Amino acid sequence: MRRTGMIAGILSxxxxxxxxxxxxxxxAEDVELNVGTEPAFENLTxxxxxxxTHAGDGTNRVFVAExxxxxxxxxxxxDVEEASVFLDIDERCVYQDNQNEEGLLGFAFHPKFRENxxxxxxxxxxxxxxxxVISRFRVxxxxxxxxxxASEEEILRIPQPFWNHNGGTICFGPDGYLYIGLGDGGSxxxxxxxxxxxxxxxxxxxRIDVDxxxxxxxxxxxxxxxxxxxxxxRGPRGQMVPARPEIYAYGLRNVWRMSFDRANxxxxxxxxxxxxxxxxxxxxxxxxxxxxxxxxxxxxxxDGNDVDRKDLIDPIHEYHHDIGKSITGGxxxxxxxxxxxxxxxLYADYVTGRLWALEYDSDKGTVRNYSIxxxxxxxxxxxxxxxxxxxxxxxxxxxxxxxxGREAAE
Length: 410
Description:
Blueprint: E1 15-17, E2 26-28, E3 31-32, E4 35-40, E5 49-53, E6 61-66, E7 70-75, E8 84-88, E9 104-109, H1 113-116, E10 118-124, E11 131-139, E12 147-159, E13 170-172, E14 178-181, E15 204-208, E16 231-234, E17 239-242, E18 247-250, E19 255-260, E20 267-271, E21 277-283, E22 294-295, E23 298-299, E24 317-320, E25 327-328, E26 345-349, E27 355-361, E28 366-372, E29 379-384, E30 390-394, E31 399-404
Parallel strand pairs: 3-28
Antiparallel strand pairs: 1-2, 4-31, 5-6, 6-7, 7-8, 9-10, 10-11, 11-12, 13-14, 14-15, 15-18, 16-17, 19-20, 20-21, 21-24, 22-23, 25-26, 26-27, 27-28, 29-30, 30-31
């Protein structure tokens, strides 16, 4: 998926290896990993496949959401011949090629989908300009491969000032709450200052309880959310205004894909940069990740000097725009087919088409970056099947998977 502020081109260079907050970055060559890619489900193609996921219900089905508002489902067999339509909300969903950060962007099954048949979507609604909605849907009672479009229940509506930087990932954490990744609202430079504004939902990762309702909303706030009851100065006179209790972490520009490590519950988020830097963050409760004071670890605002802000959390990894210009975040691999990938975070750069696997030692705060030297492709998104095998999608409509060996995908 193309994000603004990027200049197309294919460049190669060494990756910056970074440590924990306060540590210095050293330049080191990527280590080549003996892993390649290959087409997955070769008989199937999709229109801008934006999400690949599973229902977690033991059926091993694969679901692919297309950005224009159609979700398809098929058996997890490499020789599958056809995918059927699970849900079609094309008429409710806005997508245009010249505003390609809108559309159906997020799709997540409830952890108890087998019992309650619920799943959730994040999409740009046709009922209002530049407006994102989070909605609950239910599967048909007659056919498990068909959802009921009439079952939609809107959970949350988020006006966006511009068409870009919508974020769009939704995923359930191990705590059973729904996490929502939102961009800063768009344009460039975060003109409305949303990244550092706790009174708006934009520029944040939200955490809500979709199993309960409270305070007149279609959801409840988890009792341990970090900004409940807090106020912040806002406005020309510095009036104290309540922070939004939905916020879990903030200071983010445009998280393009976040995911939980299914082994330990760590929340990974890849944040797309603007001028020079792309970054990968480990997201923690109440964390401030710096935008637009900083871009990654580097001072960004033109209205001041680089100061020691110990309250800002450094990314665990960053790379310069000499290497890539739009990060696509993925998953920590927990499958069984490729032992050499286990525990490594798979990610890519959309512009250069490069693929990597990042090994992070949380105790030492160090990373090692592995390059997957394969055919370069514009990677839109990553996803997992029920067994933890990881796939990625491209703008060409194909799905790919990883395999041992460095031969280029065809």
